[in-house]
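Pasting as-is:
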Amino acid sequence: MARNDPYRNFRFRVEIDGITQAGFNEVSFGDTTTEMVEYREGTDPAHTRKLSGQTKYANVTLKWGITDSTDLFDWHQEVVQKGALGNRRNLAIILVDEAGNDKSRWELEEAWPTKYDPTDFNAKGNDVAIETLEIVSEAYKRVS
């Protein structure tokens, strides 16, 4: 019987409508939570029913090493100056196996940047300068 090892989390790529950005070193999904709503029927005073309520999607955070590209910062600036309406984009995060094949894909529709965090500088260090962008999405789904 063939052994199916889990995929490693260090090979992935990010696709954003109209933006080509290489070198993401981290993508963090927040959790998806469906609220629980308690409901008691008038005819059953001793027990409550637990129903599903609103589902909330936490933000997705992208981190990358600074290059000459300002595309993601420019996207954030468009939202700052003009608002999210008209500046939403579709985004995909793709997990890649060790042979370079796409294995899993998550899609975010109508996403927009809510927070930009430039790098910190330290004259005593030699780390890569990292930018961070937090993305809002009303929902995301795993499509493969």
